[in-house]
Design brief:
Strand 19 and strand 20 form a beta hairpin. The protein has a domain of 84 residues: Substrate Binding Domain Of DNAk, Chain A, domain 1. The protein contains 14 helices and 26 strands. Helix 1 packs parallel to helix 12, helix 12 runs parallel beside helix 14 and helix 13 runs antiparallel to helix 14. The protein is globular and about 90 Å long. It has 578 residues and is of the alpha+beta class. The structure holds adenosine monophosphate.
């Protein structure tokens, strides 16, 4: 049984496997390595994932969701078609699809996965990711930090040479910056910093707001479908600006009618607050490992948002160097996760590689002070190499104190109420005047995110322990109940065909008059040709239709002309298929 490496992204996800002595990305049904991290529940309760679900963000926004990675571990839910779903459940649908793709690719069962997570994910978010894996029927023994995975893949391309890399990962919803040391067979993350609320979607929102402001549209009062529509088009304008210096967005009719012209400088101006936030983690990561820009050998760009020239330019200015990016920012983490899967399978080619991870946040306890609120007292500092074991002594604060409550917190904030509370361990102490009794609190944190807390009462030598684990293990009963419930929900088999249908539905809603008629005729012909077609002909039909629809997409979004082959609907069956 195989192990898969999975990059579970905010916008897109990828699966890779160790195959034939190397890591390989697994293409999905549509032939693309990227599966949009989108889920939609259709009108008969079936689950759509990937491209088909992404299309429905516009045509059926109240039944569809994306970006749920941002909600992992928060306890919040998304309502799809009137039914609440935890982000873990939505992620499990994506994982299930990726597992199926990998199984179809390998021709064998995939029972386990190594899933990558932002280095900045806290224990709760990591636990939620593991839960998602379990719900999709996968064993998840190991999570890997995304920058570690990227550095691993980077090392593969550099054939084991030694260098220090700055991994700048700007995806759809998160920014992670890491400094990674890559020696012959040793990959160690030296420092991580990040902002898990900053990503490409924030750029889309700045553009969408600017469009609405210019055209007197109240962005905040837009109903969900129009908001999804303008965000979708804003993303289109942003991507267009990754290809050319200037671009414009024009919507000729309807409640969103208006236009916005933008060039690179305008984009920088519109998104100025985002750039300010972007610099902070870079400076912090370098400072944490006492390095400066000159010590960095390679800048590794990760995440779709690094395709933006303005982001590269910003980094180039900040780090005072040319940014060469020989790797695809979309797939590098997926490749690294696949290498980790190979390492777990103990494959010869990667078995000697050692990965040293870091504690991405500080772990500590709360101490009382006169101001009232508990103050955070770090025991294991952020960026300590793992595994790590550290001890600190704490004294009683009141006369005749009977218990000491060791509250365990994770975070970087001064007041405990602003950090994440993982739990509490209460220990009895002999009554005595304040400040005379004490406890030694020992935190041991390992590479799998398991924190063991040992408290020793110094006067008696009595020892109390508790393990705080991010294992995400559900009880067997919980898994059974959840799987049973989810099994009653049908997953649509063909994503590719459904994606074409959903895209046509969206485009139909977006265009008018004669274009609608022509689109319907294209669709009729497509359905007819697919009806009794074999697998390979169906694939070619889908590819041809996808190419046509991509051109239409640019046209209706206001950036391109009507595709030249759109007006001519070929006769049934006579399509020259490439
Ligand atoms: P990821 O989470 O790494 O898949 O990144 C997704 C983000 O990358 C989304 O916000 C996309 O809008 C953005 N993105 C993808 N392609 C481009 C592009 N060509 N130009 C600008 N942003 C892009």
């Amino acid at each position: 049984m195989a192990i898969a490496g999975i990059d579970l992204g905010t916008s897109n996800s990828l699966v890779s496997v160790w195959h034939g002595g190397k890591v390989e990305l697994v293409p999905g049904e549509t032939g693309s390595f990227l599966t949009p991290s989108a889920v939609s529940i259709d009108e008969d309760g079936g689950i759509l994932t990937g491209q088909a679900a992404r299309e429905r963000l516009v045509t059926a926004p109240e039944r569809s969701a994306t970006g749920f990675k941002r909600l992992m571990g928060t306890g919040r839910t998304c309502i799809l078609g009137g039914r609440p779903f935890a982000p873990e459940e939505l992620s499990s649908f994506i994982l299930r699809r990726l597992r199926q793709d990998a199984e179809a690719y390998l021709g064998e069962e995939v029972a386990e996965a190594v899933i990558s997570v932002p280095a900045y994910f806290n224990d709760r978010q990591r636990a939620a990711t593991k839960k998602a894996g379990i719900m999709s029927g996968l064993r998840v023994e190991r999570l890997v930090n995304e920058p570690s995975a990227a550095a691993l893949a980077c090392r593969m391309v550099n054939h084991g040479g030694s260098f220090t890399a700055l991994v700048f990962d700007l995806g759809g919803g998160t920014l992670d910056v890491s400094v990674v040391d890559c020696s012959e067979n040793d990959i160690s993350v030296l420092a991580v910093a990040g902002d898990n609320r900053l990503g490409g979607t924030d750029f889309d929102q700045c553009i969408a707001r600017a469009y609405c402001q210019k055209n007197n549209i109240a962005f905040d009062s837009l109903p969900p479908d129009l908001r999804a529509d303008i965000m979708f088009r804003a993303e289109g304008l942003k991507k267009e600006l990754s290809l050319r210096d200037s671009a414009s967005l024009t919507i000729s009719e309807g409640p969103l009618a208006g236009s916005l012209e933008a060039d690179q400088q305008r984009l920088v101006d519109l998104c100025a607050p985002l750039f300010q936030r972007m610099g902070q983690p870079v400076r912090r990561a370098l400072a944490d490992c006492r390095m400066n820009a000159g010590d960095i050998g390679h800048v590794v760009l990760v995440g779709g948002s690094c395709r933006m020239p303005v982001v590269r330019q910003f980094l180039s200015q900040l780090l005072r160097r040319e940014i060469d990016a020989p790797f695809s920012p979309d797939t590098i983490v997926g490749l690294g996760a696949g290498m980790c899967a190979g390492m777990r399978e103990r494959r010869d080619e990667v078995r000697d590689i050692v990965m040293t991870d870091l504690c991405p946040f500080s772990l500590g306890t709360g101490v009382s002070h006169e101001g009232g609120d508990l103050l955070f007292s770090p025991i294991i500092e952020r960026n300590t190499s793992l595994p790590s074991s550290q001890t600190k002594r704490y004294y009683t604060t009141v006369d005749d104190q009977r218990t000491v409550a060791v509250e365990v917190y994770q975070g970087e904030e001064m007041l405990c109420k602003d950090d994440l509370c993982l739990g509490v361990l209460k220990v009895p102490v002999p009554p005595a005047p304040a400040g005379t009794e004490s406890v030694d609190v020992c935190f041991t944190y390992d590479i799998n995110g398991i924190l063991a807390v040992d408290v020793t009462v110094t006067s008696t030598g009595e020892r109390f322990s508790r393990v705080f684990s991010d294992s995400g293990n559900l009880t067997e009963q919980e898994v059974g109940a959840r799987l049973e419930e989810l099994a009653s929900m049908r997953m649509h088999e063909s994503d590719a065909l459904r994606a074409v249908r959903e895209k046509v539905r969206r485009l139909y809603a977006q265009c008018l008059g004669k274009d609608r008629e022509t689109l319907s005729r294209h669709m009729e012909r497509f359905e007819k040709n697919c009806e009794n077609a074999g697998l390979s002909q169906k694939k070619r039909e889908i590819q041809r239709m996808e190419a046509l629809l991509a051109g239409m997409d640019r046209y209706v979004s206001g950036y391109g002309r009507l595709p030249s082959d759109f007006e001519e609907v070929p006769e049934d069956g006579s399509t020259p298929l490439q």
